[in-house]
Amino acid sequence: MALSTTPLLSVGFLLLLIQETLTNKGPASFPIRLTVESDLSNMTPESYSSSVVEGGVLLGALRRLQETQRDFKFTVKEDPDFGLLLESVNGVAGDESEQTYWEILSESSGEYSRLDVGIGCYKPAANEHIILRFSTWTQH
Ligand code: B12
């Protein structure tokens, strides 16, 4: 008796496992908007759409965008204290001697606020509009 129920139990377990795999959709994700602009040149601002998983950080949205859009790329530099610094966007890099950097802002109803943490820590909200603005730190 015990012998004949074992294969049945195994098949049942396998079916449960398959069902679990098929219905497990992972964490929900939501869209965010990104604009790349410059205070230092008259480039036309570029707009992009990306997505973030629930509770995920901005870095994830930038990576996803880089994987799907051929005209968006970025690099980061690791800081021992504060994590990841956004070093370059679309081939334009911040430069210590020129005092230039990529400032990161959030826009809502025409109001701009600077993020208080870097891309590796910031958790965007659904439909948030993030601005990557090439700027100088002498202006602030
Ligand atoms: C000066 C400064 C800057 C300058 C640094 C350039 C320079 N050479 O001076 C500039 C203007 C570039 C800058 C930018 C930003 N900064 Co700043 N910055 C500072 C500040 C006031 C002093 C740093 C310093 O000179 N330390 C003394 C030197 C000797 O030590 P250091 O280790 O070599 O310093 C380096 C790091 O601090 C690094 N750095 C500076 N800011 C940031 C931010 C991040 C996320 C990272 C990874 C590294 C980093 O640049 C410094 C020079 O190389 C600190 C506050 C503080 N009291 O530490 C905030 C601080 C480090 N910055 C902060 C933030 C949030 C930012 C921005 C994300 C703001 C924004 N929304 O755009 C951006 C970075 C954007 C990006 N591209 O990723 C936060 C970091 C908090 C966190 N937990 O992530 C801090 C702590 C201010 C705060 N909110 O309290 N910053």
TrEMBL record:
<dbReference type="GO" id="GO:0015889">
    <property type="term" value="P:cobalamin transport"/>
</dbReference>
<feature type="signal peptide">
    <location>
        <begin position="1"/>
        <end position="23"/>
    </location>
</feature>
<dbReference type="GO" id="GO:0005615">
    <property type="term" value="C:extracellular space"/>
</dbReference>
<protein>
    <submittedName>
        <fullName>Transcobalamin-1-like isoform X1</fullName>
    </submittedName>
</protein>
<dbReference type="GO" id="GO:0031419">
    <property type="term" value="F:cobalamin binding"/>
</dbReference>
<keyword id="KW-0732">Signal</keyword>
<dbReference type="InterPro" id="IPR051588">
    <property type="entry name" value="Cobalamin_Transport"/>
</dbReference>
